[in-house]
Amino acid sequence: MPTIAHCDLDSYCLFAGFLDDQPVFVTANGEITLLGDKQKVVEAHQGIASVALSRDKKSVITGGEDGRICRTSSALQCRELARHEKKWITSVAAGPDNSYAFAFSRTAWADDGKGLQEFDHERSVEDLAFAPKGLRFAVARYNGVTLHWLGADTKPTDLTWKGAHFAVTFSPDGRYVISSMQENALHGWRLSDEQHLRMSGYPAKVKSWSWSAKGKWLATSGAPAAIVWPFQAKDGPMGKAPLELGTRADAMVTCVCCHPEEDIVAAGFNDGMILFIRFADAKEVLLRRPGKGAISTMTWDDKGYRLAFGSESGEAGIIDISA
């Protein structure tokens, strides 16, 4: 049976994961908590609005309500990267080689190690994501997604689809860009020819997604089950039905996290329950019984033995499935 080490936090948990293999939790009240021999806490901001794990998993990038963008290491050393007084940093992203991006209002900034570059948009920037190799990054906005090249005087690419797009991700192979929309749907583009991908039918907004270990599946929240779209074929999920895993008639999946090695997903629900579900046969294992709040974040360690989780109510912890 899995074992759980609990950690009660003072606020909504925005991120639960691992820095240098040590459990870390980031909360909306501005605190970053590290679990080791002793619990350590640093107040990085006066309220955190966004957080991203660095690609090397040695630091987290945070954007605050105080207008600061910070990088915090596994030693809880917090370094300010940039500051914009009286601005609310609404989105941050982490790329390769410690590159990072952040945004507020209609402007995004990105630093690939050669200094900050500024990118203005006609509408508010809702989310950011780096491509796998980090040479370009995506901006989710109203009526679509904009792709920018870093370090090059190249015209951006506008991927258009009417509606409000509030989150964006690249597929691990860099072939697709997917956005989450206010209209309870996903929209995507195949970058080779800008072919549209439409993934609809959700009863709620998709606020969590996770690519499988080899990038062949995209697991999503927003339904009474984990909705998992196939991306193995050249046309991605076009014309194909998704898997529906861990269906519960009286609950909604609020968070998903694919295992780092196997085609298995952890699905967290709005009542705090967490299930571990295999793609091949939909076999389920109960990892956590219902708690006090909806699961808001989950991350596996590199070996796939421990799952860090956090909830909207501040309940958090580490589930060890190797026990």
From TrEMBL:
Keyword Repeat: yes
Keywords, alphabetical: Repeat, WD repeat
Record-linked Pfam families: WD40
Keyword Repeat: yes
Domain of life: Bacteria
Cross-referenced InterPro entries: WD40/YVTN_repeat-like_dom_sf, WD40_repeat_dom_sf, WD40_rpt
PANTHER family in alphabetical order: F-BOX AND WD REPEAT DOMAIN CONTAINING 7, WD40 REPEAT PROTEIN
Designated name of the protein: WD40 repeat
